[in-house]
Design goal:
CATH superfamily of the largest domain in chain A: MetI-like
Helix content of chain B: 55-70%
Mean pLDDT of chain B: 81
Largest sheet of chain B: none
Radius of gyration of chain B: 26 Å
CATH architecture of chain B: Orthogonal Bundle
Structural class of chain A: mainly alpha
Number of helices of chain A: 12
Number of helices of chain B: 17
Number of strands of chain B: 0
Number of domains of chain A: 3
Oligomer: heterodimer
Shape of chain B: globular
Helix content of chain A: 55-70%
CATH topology of chain B: MetI-like fold
CATH architecture of the largest domain in chain A: Orthogonal Bundle
CATH class of chain B: Mainly Alpha
Mean pLDDT of chain A: 83
Low-confidence stretches of chain B: 1-11, 13-23
Largest interface: A-B, 67 and 62 residues
Number of strands of chain A: 5
CATH topology of the largest domain in chain A: MetI-like fold
CATH superfamily of chain B: MetI-like
Structural class of chain B: mainly alpha
Largest sheet of chain A: 3 strands, antiparallel
Order of helices and strands of chain A: HHHHHEEHHEEEHHHHH
Low-confidence stretches of chain A: 1-11
Distance between the termini of chain A: 40 Å
Strand content of chain A: under 5%
Shape of chain A: globular
Chain lengths: ~400, ~375
C-alpha cells in the first residue's frame, strides 16, 4: 500500500528491488540476523579458544565439586565441605529471604507513607514528602553502606541496646526471641493456612449472598473458628509446645533466639526504606487517580472516611497501582544483589566467589541470569494474575 | 472557594473540611486548619512535633554543637574521644580532594574540576526548552570531546593521565553521561525494532531488552569485568573503565528503549498513514514525523530514567572502579580516619542529592508543563 508505483512499470523491471516492501523487509531481517549470528559466533570462538588456553573446561560438572567456601548466614544446613550446587541453593534461599520479606515490609511501609503524604495534617504530609524525596534521590548502594556503617557502630553485645525485653540490637545484629519449629508446630501452621484459605472461599460466598438479598453477614465468627479455633484444637490435641526461647548473652555473643546478622539487617533496612519511597509515590498517585466524585458520593451516603478509603477508593486505586508496583517488586529483587557490597552471601555473591575460585565465568553468570529470570517471571505471573482479578469488570 | 485552587498537590479530603482550609487567613487559622483540625490530627501533630524536635536537637548537638571542624595534621585523637557524641567534620577538608578527584595527579586536579563544570554547563544548557534544537547535538559532541581532552591530556602541553588514575565525581559523571549519550540512540533503534513489522528484528530486540532488564545490573557489571575479556581475541584488551562503560550503554539502551516505546505507542496511527501518504521512507518517516512527537511525549519519564541511571553508576564500586562512592569508601580506609565514615557518607550523599534533586525537580516541572498545555 505504501509503494503505490504503477503496476505495469514495475513488471518491466527486475523483480528484485529494494523498493519492494516485502523484499526490503526480508533483506533487512537477513542482514541483521546475519550480523548478530556472526558477532555471537566470533565471540564464542574467542571464548572457546581463551578457555582452552586457560584450561577451563566448560559445563556444569563443577557443581558437583566440593565448594570449600564458608557461608556465614545460611538458613539451610551447610558446611564448606558441601558441593557448589548446595552453595548455590543456599544462595538462592538467601536471596529469596531478603526479597520476599523485603517486598512485604516495603509494601506495608510504602502504603502507609503514601497515605500519609495525602493526609490533611500538614506536618505529616510534609514529613512523608521529605522522606520520599530524600530516599529516592540517593543511590541505594550509598544508603546500604550507610546503614551497614551504622550497624557496625552499634554497641557491643555486652552493652546491647534493648528496646523491648528479649530484643537486642548490637553490632552482632538484631536478636529476637524465637519459637523452635518442630513437626507438630508445622502441622498447626499448616492447619491455620488451610483455615485461612477456607475462610477466603467462605467470605466470597457470603459476599455473593449479600449481593442477592442485601443482608450483611458477619465474617468474624467463621474467622474465629477456622483460623483460631481449629489450629488451637490441633495444637492442644497433638500437645505441641510453643515455648518462646529468649536470647541470652553468653560471653561475647548471644545464644538462642533468632539472629538477623548485621549484613542481612542492613540490606533489609536499605531495600525496604528505598523501595517504600517509590511505592509511596505509586500509592499516592493511584489514590489521586480515583475521581473526587467517588469520595463525594460515598460521603453523601454517610460512610466513614476509613470505610470509604478501604472499600471504595482503594479497590479502584489498585487498578492503577498494581502494574507499577510489579516493577518495583522486580527492582527490589534485582537490587538485593547489592548484598555483595556488604558481604551478605546471596546468589550473586556466591556465584562471584565460585567464579573466582573455579574460573567458570560463563556458567556462573548463566546461573545468576537463570535464577533472576525465573524469580522475575514468577513475580510477573503472580502480579498479572492478581491484576486480572482486580481488573474492572464491565457489566 | 473550590478545592482545586487551595492545594493542587494535595486534593484529598482525608478528615478535612475543605471550606475551613480555604478560609484560613491568619497564622492561628492556618494552624487550626492544617495541624489541629480534629482530635486524631492533633495527637499526630503533637507526637510528630515532639519527635521532630528531639531529632533536631540531637542532630544539632552531634553535627554542630559537639562537632570538631579542624584537627592539626591527622591527630584524630580528639575526634575519637567524642565519637558518637559529636561529628568529626575535620575529615572532609582533609579528604575532599581525594573524594572528588581520586588519584588524579594532585597538581593537575583543575582539569577534572573543569570537566565537572563542563558537564554541569552541558546539563544546564540541555535542560532549557529554547535550546532543544539540532545544534544541541553539536554542543554535546563538542563538550564530550573537550572533557576527553581535559581528562586524558597528552596534547596542548597537558600531561597525559591514564584512565586508571581517574576517579571521583568526574568518573561518576562520565559513566552516566557517556552511558546516556550512547544508550539513547541505541534505545531509539531498539524501540523502533521492537515495534517493527519484521518478526526476526522484533524478536531480537525483545530478547535484548528482556535479558538486560531481567538480570541485576551487578551481574552485568561482573560480566563486563570478568566475562568480557574471555570473549575477545588474544592480546586485545580493553580498559576496565571502558568495559564498565559498555555495560552501562547496553543497560541504559534497554531501559530507555522501553520508555521510548511507550512514547511510540502513544502516537496515533493517522500520523503513520499521513507520513506514508507523503511517500516518506521508513527512516525519514520516523526521523521527521514519529520520533519527534514520541520523544516529546515521554520527556518526564526519560528524565526519571536518567535520574535512576545516575544513581546506578554507583554500583561500579562492586567491580572496583573509582567513582565518587568508591573514593569515599577508600578515603576512610586510612587508619587515622577509619571511624568517621558516617561524616564522609553524608558529604557524598549531599553531592549525589544536589544532582538528583535538581533532576527530579526538573522532571516534575516538565510534567506540570505537559499537563497544562
Amino acid at each position: 500500500m505504501t509503494t503505490s508505483t504503477p503496476e505495469p512499470a514495475r513488471r518491466k523491471r527486475l523483480p528484485i528491488s529494494l523498493s519492494n516492501e516485502r523484499l526490503a523487509g526480508l533483506f533487512w531481517q537477513i542482514a541483521v540476523v546475519g550480523i548478530a549470528i556472526a558477532v555471537v559466533t566470533w565471540l564464542w570462538s574467542n571464548a572457546v579458544h581463551n578457555l582452552s588456553v586457560r584450561r577451563i573446561s566448560t559445563g556444569f560438572a563443577f557443581l558437583g565439586r566440593e565448594a570449600g567456601m564458608p557461608i556465614a548466614d545460611a538458613w539451610l544446613s551447610y558446611s564448606p565441605k558441601n558441593t557448589y550446587l548446595r552453595a548455590f541453593i543456599v544462595g538462592i534461599v538467601n536471596t529469596l529471604r531478603v526479597a520476599v520479606i523485603g517486598i512485604v515490609l516495603a509494601t506495608v511501609l510504602g502504603t502507609m507513607i503514601g497515605i500519609a503524604r495525602l493526609s490533611s495534617n500538614w506536618l505529616l504530609s510534609r514529613l512523608a514528602a521529605v522522606y520520599v524525596e530524600v530516599l529516592r534521590d540517593l543511590p541505594l548502594l550509598l544508603q546500604l553502606l550507610f546503614w551497614y556503617v551504622l550497624m557496625q557502630g552499634l554497641p557491643a553485645a555486652r552493652t546491647a541496646w534493648i528496646p523491648i525485653d528479649g530484643v537486642y540490637l548490637s553490632n552482632r545484629g538484631l536478636v529476637l526471641p524465637s519459637i523452635p519449629i518442630e513437626e507438630g508446630n508445622l502441622w498447626v501452621i499448616g492447619m491455620a493456612a488451610v483455615g485461612l484459605m477456607a475462610l477466603y472461599a467462605l467470605r466470597r460466598r457470603l459476599i455473593a449472598r449479600q449481593l442477592l438479598d442485601g443482608q450483611p453477614r458477619p465474617v468474624w465468627p467463621y474467622a474465629l473458628v477456622l483460623v483460631v479455633g481449629l489450629p488451637t484444637l490441633v495444637s492442644w490435641g497433638l500437645g505441641v509446645s510453643w515455648t518462646i526461647v529468649m536470647p541470652e548473652l553468653r560471653g561475647f555473643n548471644f545464644v538462642g533466639g533468632l539472629t538477623l546478622t548485621p549484613e542481612y539487617f542492613a540490606l533489609l533496612v536499605a531495600l525496604v526504606t528505598y523501595t517504600s519511597a517509590f511505592i509511596a509515590e505509586i500509592v499516592r498517585s493511584g489514590i489521586q487517580a480515583v475521581p473526587m466524585g467517588q469520595w463525594d458520593a460515598a460521603m453523601a451516603l454517610g460512610l466513614r472516611r476509613s470505610f470509604i478509603l478501604q472499600h471504595i477508593v482503594m479497590p479502584q486505586a489498585l487498578r492503577v497501582i498494581i502494574p507499577p508496583m510489579t516493577s518495583q517488586y522486580l527492582n527490589l529483587t534485582k537490587n538485593s544483589s547489592l548484598a555483595v557490597a556488604v558481604g551478605y552471601q546471596d546468589i550473586v555473591s556466591i556465584a562471584n566467589t565460585t567464579l573466582n575460585q573455579t574460573g567458570q565465568a560463563i556458567e556462573a553468570i548463566a546461573l545468576i541470569m537463570l535464577v533472576f529470570l525465573t524469580i522475575s517471571l514468577g513475580i510477573s505471573l503472580f502480579m498479572n494474575w492478581y491484576n486480572a482479578r482486580i481488573a474492572l469488570v464491565e457489566r | 472557594m473550590t478545592s482545586v485552587t487551595d492545594a493542587p498537590e494535595n486534593p484529598l479530603p482525608f478528615g478535612r473540611s475543605r471550606s475551613r482550609r480555604a478560609g484560613s487567613g491568619s497564622l492561628i487559622g492556618w494552624l487550626r486548619a492544617n495541624l489541629f483540625s480534629s482530635i486524631p490530627s492533633t495527637i499526630i501533630s503533637l507526637a510528630l512535633i515532639f519527635l521532630l524536635a528531639k531529632a533536631c536537637v540531637s542532630f544539632v548537638q552531634w553535627g554542630f554543637w559537639n562537632a570538631i571542624w579542624t584537627v592539626p595534621d591527622n591527630q584524630t585523637g580528639g575526634c575519637r574521644a567524642i565519637r558518637g557524641l559529636g561529628a568529626c567534620w575535620a575529615v572532609i577538608p582533609e579528604k575532599y580532594r581525594f573524594i572528588l578527584f581520586g588519584t588524579y595527579p594532585f597538581d593537575q586536579q583543575w582539569r577534572p574540576a573543569l570537566s565537572v563544570l563542563t558537564f554541569i554547563a552541558l546539563f544546564l544548557v540541555s535542560s532549557r526548552r529554547s535550546c532543544w534544537r539540532k545544534e544541541l547535538m553539536l554542543a554535546w559532541v563538542a563538550a564530550l570531546v573537550v572533557i576527553g581532552l581535559l581528562m586524558w591530556g597528552g596534547i596542548l602541553g597537558l600531561s597525559f593521565v591514564p584512565q586508571d588514575r581517574w576517579g571521583g565525581l568526574p568518573v561518576t559523571l562520565i559513566l552516566a553521561t557517556f552511558g546516556l549519550a550512547f544508550g539513547f540512540p541505541l534505545g531509539i533503534v531498539v524501540a523502533l525494532g521492537r515495534r517493527s513489522r519484521l518478526p526476526a528484528i522484533r524478536s531480537l530486540c525483545v530478547l535484548y531488552v528482556e535479558l538486560i532488564r531481567g538480570v541485576p545490573l551487578v551481574s552485568l557489571l561482573f560480566m563486563s569485568s570478568v566475562m568480557f575479556p574471555l570473549f575477545l581475541p588474544d592480546g586485545f584488551n580493553i580498559d576496565k573503565l571502558l568495559r564498565a562503560q559498555v555495560a552501562f550503554v547496553l543497560y541504559a539502551g534497554a531501559y530507555l528503549a522501553e520508555v521510548i516505546r511507550g512514547g511510540l505507542q502513544a502516537i496515533p496511527s493517522g500520523q503513520h498513514d499521513a507520513a506514508d501518504a507523503l511517500g516518506l521512507s521508513y527512516w525519514r518517516k520516523n526521523a521527521l514525523v514519529i520520533l519527534p512527537q514520541a520523544i516529546r511525549h515521554v520527556i518526564p519519564p526519560l528524565v526519571n530514567t536518567f535520574l535512576a541511571f545516575f544513581k546506578d553508576t554507583s554500583l561500579v564500586l562492586i567491580i572496583g572502579i573509582f567513582d565518587l562512592l568508591t573514593t569515599a569508601k577508600t578515603a576512610i580506609v586510612d587508619p587515622a580516619w577509619q571511624s568517621f565514615s558516617v561524616e564522609v557518607y553524608l558529604f557524598v550523599a549531599l553531592i549525589y542529592f544536589v544532582f538528583s534533586f535538581a533532576m527530579s525537580r526538573y522532571s516534575r516541572r516538565l510534567e506540570t508543563e505537559a499537563k497544562s498545555t
